[in-house]
Amino acid sequence: xxxxxxxxxxxxxxxxxxxxxxxxxxxxxxxxxxxxxxxxxxxxxxxxxxxxxxxxxxxxxxxxxxxxxxxxxxxxxxxxxxxxxxxxxxxxxxxxxxxxxxxxxxxxxxxxxxxxxxxxxxxxxxxxxxxxxxxxxxxxxxxxxxxxxxxxxxxxxxxxxxxxxxxxxxxxxxxxxxxxxxxxxxxxxxxxxxxxxxxxxxxxxxxxxxxxxxxxxxxxxxxxxxxxxxxxxxxxxxxxxxxxxxxxxxxxxxxxxxxxxxxxxxxxxxxxxxxxxxxxxxxxxxxxxxxxxxxxxxxxxxxxxxxxxxxxxxxxxxxxxxxxxxxxxxxxxxxxxxxxxxxxxxxxxxxxxxxxxxxxxxxxxxxxxxxxxxxxxxxxxxxxxxxxxxxxxxxxxxxxxxxxxxxxxxxxxxxxxxxxxxxxxxxxxxxxxxxxxxxxxxxxxxxxxxxxxxxxxxxxxxxxxxxxx
Length: 469
Hints:
Distance between the termini: 20 Å
Radius of gyration: 55 Å
Oligomer: single chain
């Protein structure tokens, strides 16, 4: 029998159970207090994070407002410059038309002059209101020019003055006219050169023949320059809009970056609140023989730190929320592990005292996380290896491995056969475990034990008797 493992479940005594229940209540209250402090700290951090987000939104809104105001001012200034330039061009054109009307009057034209003057006055009023005249000036110019030959009988008397007026019209296109409409400017300059040649004696017919062509070329050049300027203005506006869009995109990217930093900071701060407790669960649970609990909380911790390292704010916040949710139950389970550990440790101390009280020599032991292993020897040389473990429901259990302990038959003075067996010896040890103030061991069992067999104690100064029902 001595080589077969022997088992005995152990229950705690009533007084020990009361002390343990009181300790469990104390620990539960401590857990609730810790969680209240952590909840208060989370609330404080959440309030600070919300304030930081609000400040960031306000700063972004301020910058966006400044940028919008600057873009509006720049657009308005550009439009004002374009409008002023166009107004000056229209005013120059209107002044030229006025001079042409005056020249036509000096040439003897009477019919239609009043209508032309009224049209000129209307265009001046429109220009004064800031309206863009477009082709209206050139149309009026053409009508005035068409009167001149008729007024002079189909002949231009002062060809030099007409040439000077046409050259003035070319220069009135502006210093950038040669750049904005290079082909048109060269054509006008060439035609004016040919017209200048026709101002000599005997060139009247040729001058009149070229005059209409020059007028048309100048009008076309002026219209082209105006169109190119308008297109350039549209291009500048498009460029500004593109720059504004790029600036807005940069603002959105900055806003996203700021939001990311704020979220990462919030996750890191919340992790700082629970990390010490979570790491304590990991370290202690592994030492107390619950690797599953250690892995569960360790994995939850790593999920947060990995997300922070990867700068994934959404995952970090989700992971830290999960860790916060797991921690209270993990601490409750850890408290139960520690209570079970204390129960095993107390049982170890009681068992060591009881066995040494029965003559065993304590040879040392090991803490194996979820259990203790103790080594004893008897003066006979028998070796007892005792494991103090805990079942899944928290019940302590004793497991004995005995080597070198033969069953010995003794003879009492009355010649009555008795047997000081391993079971009887262990029963005596169990009686010394403390009772209500300590531990109460159950029946010793082993594989192959006969049903109903139990050692019956005799007085301690004799031995033990076996009884079989």
